[in-house]
């Protein structure tokens, strides 16, 4: 009986030792940004950037000039017709992951 009690008493603690994984910028971008900023037609953010900055700067995932600071500012403050994302929508860790992923060096095409 004593052994059985120890097993059941330790069960709630088992879930506490699991560390949460760091946010994945690519997945977060796909979930929160790609509806407006993916490649191809039907994405208003990409279309607007093509008009304002040119086709080489339209698709965020392909850009090589983005800095984490610029991405963070655009996400938090919004940019032109893009509304800002609040911390209740994307945490600071989420924004940092997206910014790091978008600003990472890209392979040459």
TrEMBL record:
InterPro entries: Cyt_c-like_dom, Cyt_c-like_dom_sf. Keywords: Heme, Iron, Metal-binding, Signal. PROSITE patterns: CYTC. This is Cytochrome c, class I. The keyword Metal-binding applies. The keyword Hydrolase does not apply. Residues 1-21 form the signal peptide. GO terms for molecular function: electron transfer activity; heme binding; metal ion binding. Gene3D superfamilies: Cytochrome c-like domain. Residues 20-106 form the Cytochrome c domain.
